[in-house]
Amino acid sequence: MVQWLNVAGVRSAWTLLRRPSLLAPFLTVPDIRAIPFDRLRRAGIQYVVFDKDNCLTAPYVDAIHPAFERAWRQCRAAFPGDRILIVSNSAGTPDDTDHQAAAAVERALGVPVLRHKEKKPRCGGEILARLGAARPGEIAVVGDRLATDVALANMNGMVAIWTRQIV
Prior knowledge:
The chain is an alpha/beta fold and 167 residues long. It has 6 helices and 5 strands.
């Protein structure tokens, strides 16, 4: 699948230049193995939104990165049912013909992929509508990019978790 220009990202650049604090994560971890999922749940986080590539999987691979399998099971135990959502700037976007990539990711990872018109960091409203959270602060966004994943969380009042090491 070919990704086209992220117009939402370009439009957000001016906002991020004026407000660089939007690039500051709440929590920085090496990768998902260091995320305290049970502690997040006890602290009031009800939903976790993940970027896929470089965070859960290698780029353009649908299976969970083998080293992350245990952490993925822990996350799914702490956030069962539809409390986990994948939000990608490839799978589930208009670039994803007939949402074939989104369906493949859902089969491989066992959680839903958001079908969204606006790419990150501008799809916060679509995430909120899909999850039905009582308030944005109940949602943690986990991703490897400051200008998309962390900015998405901070622009929408969600909790930003930045994974430094990429797959």
